Amino acid sequence: MPHELSLLAPVVFLILGLVGMSFVTQKLRQPMLVGYILVGLIINLLGIDKHINTEQFKELSDFGLTLLLFIVGLKLDVGVLKSMGNAMKIGVLQVLVTALAGYGMALLMGFGTIGSIYIGMGLAFSSTIVIIKVLSDKKEIDSLPGRIDLGILIIQDIIAVIFMIVMNSIFVKSDDSFGLRMLKLAGYGMALLMGFGPIGSIYIGMGLAFSSTIVIIKVLSDKKE
Asked: What is the domain count for the chain?
């Protein structure tokens, strides 16, 4: 078994690699996110990844993503988002159109109904982390296009959570009866009608419908068609 490097060693490799790659990405006018991917690829090709404690590095990366989202939350003007009615409508429309198109294509390619639903919804959602990072690097997160993008991303994330609640409650096999799972799903609707608002209702629905981390991969791995 190869000797594992301390957590500091891969961080040093990463920083040195990013310093060099930053010059390349600036010359090509590309976001630093591209540089991150290339540095990771180079580390992989050099075999350094075999000596890295991936669990520690994963925890470090999760902490970094948490900080990034925290910073975005600090900068987020809820009042501005409320005024972006058109952006919210575009977000809903984009998810519907893309999901339906992906669902249809998946069916034509021979996938089953449930699999096609997952593929369609997967194609409909953007990567919030990637887009926020690109906007932050380009210093456009506070610009009008950046705020519109954030509005659309928020709608996508809300729809994604609702989608996972529905799919987990209906299709994932568990010890609960179908009726009990539907009752849990109804918790979201009841919370919404009681005035908790979309976000609060989603959290209530998540607490009712899930007993573990809400990740779409977990839903896919638990589902048995």
From this structure: 2
